[in-house]
Amino acid sequence: MSKSGVLKRSTILIHGSIGMPLAVIGYPLAIYLPPFYASEIGLPLIMIGLMIFLARATDVITDPLIGSISDRWETRLGRRKIWLLMGLPLMLLGIVKVFMPEPPVDVWYLLLWTAVMYLGWTMITLPYGAWGAELSPVYHQRSRVTAAREAYILVGLFLAAVVPAVVQHLGRRFEAGDTEGRLMDFAIWLIGTDGELGTGNGPILAAMAWLMIVLLPLTVFLVTWRVAEPKNVTREQVPWKKGLRTLKNNGPLKRVLLVLLIVIIGESFRNSLSFFFMQHVVQVQDYIGLLYLMYFGLGILAIPFWLILGRNIGKHRAFCVAMIVASAGSLGMIFLGPGDIVPFTIMFAIKGICFGAFQFLPLAMLADIVDVDTARSGEQRTGLVFALSGMTQKLAMAVGVGLSLALLELARFEAAGPNEAPQIMALKVYYVIAPILFYMAAYWLAWKYPLTEARQRRLRSLIDRRNLARGRPITDSV
Fold first, then answer.
1. 422-477 pLDDT, tens per residue?
2. SS3 (DSSP) at 75
3. Could you tell me if 51 and 223 are in contact, meaning their C-beta atoms sit under 8 angstroms apart?
4. 336 — alpha (psi -120 to 50), left (phi > 0) or beta?
5. What residue spans of 314-340 are helical by DSSP H?
6. Are 183 and 171 in contact (CB under 8 A)?
7. Where would I find the beta strands (DSSP E) of 151-263?
8. CB 316 within 8 A of CB 181
9. Are 87 and 124 spatial neighbours (Cβ–Cβ below 8 Å)?
10. Cα Rg for the chain, rounded, in angstroms?
11. Coil, helix or strand for 370?
């Protein structure tokens, strides 16, 4: 990093790469996991939602603990890298157990291994997010770092959409009697069961697990090898209680955490119902993989637009625009029925264009909020701030998934079908209307967000002057 805080493009691109495998696991958990454990394993929807919620609840303890320790624990590798290396085997073990379960499987099996997977996930994602926020103190450089990471996330989501499309295609070929060839033999060996390749969600989840087994170690080792950690130049040891009071009085932090909580509940609520909506309402189950391929592809292509819009009107207002467009574009889905593939595809595409903004703009705002805390406390606690963010996001995901599945169960919806008109209407309302209500609440909070580019520059100037007066470097890296 230069003295001006401008990062090399290679640094930004390499650091962001871990976002790709993290995305591959993220969306299957919401889209394919509940239908798999409900329809193919036979667990009740409400219990699946409850177990996922309880597994996420462990983050209330682990997130602030790991975030705080990673801020203070200096090792030969730095403060952040060591956590990525320790979390890697735990996360991979959990993925194998959750995505490729071996009988007997019950709700306690799901709870145990989901909790293990989430612990490894926390050990990687929290220090990794804090590391990214510390790479540069410059407002728009942080947007570039976050956007690069989220671009990789969208590429990962694109891969996560390619995999189901390919697996479903191979499954249909197998069922049609086309069982020969090296590709088919390899697929049956890798993700098949008892020498057969089905068209359900089991082979899809198994293929995603194998993709993670390859991509996650590759990117973690690459980033820890090639990207340097910035030095921690603000070393005051603020007492725990005083530190919590400082964060409690951080108005922008509280606002962004609340925005994240609300909008991610809406996103998770919707995502956990997407498979059911496509299967039972529009009835396009054979094309779900292709639809998500388009969805995430448009999300990747739209990132430059959201970056430019954020530069011109501010990150928070660009985020508000995305929520308005996503809500307006999704509203017509309430009127869809069997065979309405074209209108559903158009509305799904509009939501996909907004998806990239939902992913990276709030986190770019969070990186600026670290400066508010540093200016007030004198300590660089990026890990703790991102721990609070991670805890909020995971809680929101758990609430969104658990609440949506519980409501669907209470409506007497059958995951394997068939369902009557009242159950289909309940699914429509939950999938379309409920997320829009969450988006509008987040919009109202985000529009009044006070930390602008001008204010962030003043904060950085204050921090740099104080560090300079105390003989510390303004920007440096190891």
1. 999 999 999 999 999 999 998 988 887 766 666 666 666 666 666 666 555 444 43
2. strand
3. no
4. beta
5. 315-330
6. no
7. none
8. no
9. yes
10. 22
11. helix
Structure tokens at 399: 């609430």
For the chain, the domains span 9-228+259-469
Nearest to 305 by CA among 320, 294, 296, 318: 318
Q: Which helix (H) or strand (E) holds 157?
A: helix 139-175
Please work out, in degrees rounded to the nearest 5, the angle formed at the alpha carbon of residue 282 by the alpha carbons of 280 and 287.
Answer: 95
Q: What share of the chain is helix, strand, coil (3-state, %, to 5)?
A: 80, 0, 20
Helices 341-377, 315-330: axis angle to 10 degrees equals: 160
For residues 383 and 63, give the distance between their C-alpha atoms in angstroms, rounded to a whole number.
9
Q: Which of 365, 374, 336, 356 is nearest to 450 (CA)?
A: 365
| Amino acid found at 246 | T
Number of H helices, E strands in the chain: 19, 0
CB of 25 closer than 8 Å to CB of 208: yes
**Do residues 286 and 171 make contact, with C-beta atoms less than 8 angstroms apart?**
no
Per-residue pLDDT reduced to its tens digit, 176-193: 888 888 888 899 989 888
pLDDT at position 65 is 81
> Mutual orientation of helices 288-313 and 315-330 as an angle, nearest 10°?
140
List the chain residues with pLDDT less than 50. Answer: 1-2, 4, 233-240, 473-478
- Residue pair 146/132 in contact (Cβ under 8 Å)? The answer is yes
Token output for 320? 């508000």
Determine the residue type at 313: I
Q: Which architecture, in CATH terms, is 9-228+259-469?
A: Up-down Bundle (1.20)
Residue type, 272: S
CB of 333 within 8 A of CB of 344? yes
Helix (H) or strand (E) holding 252: helix 251-277
CA–CA distance, 269 with 405 (Å, rounded to integer): 8
Cβ count near 443 (within 10 Å): 19
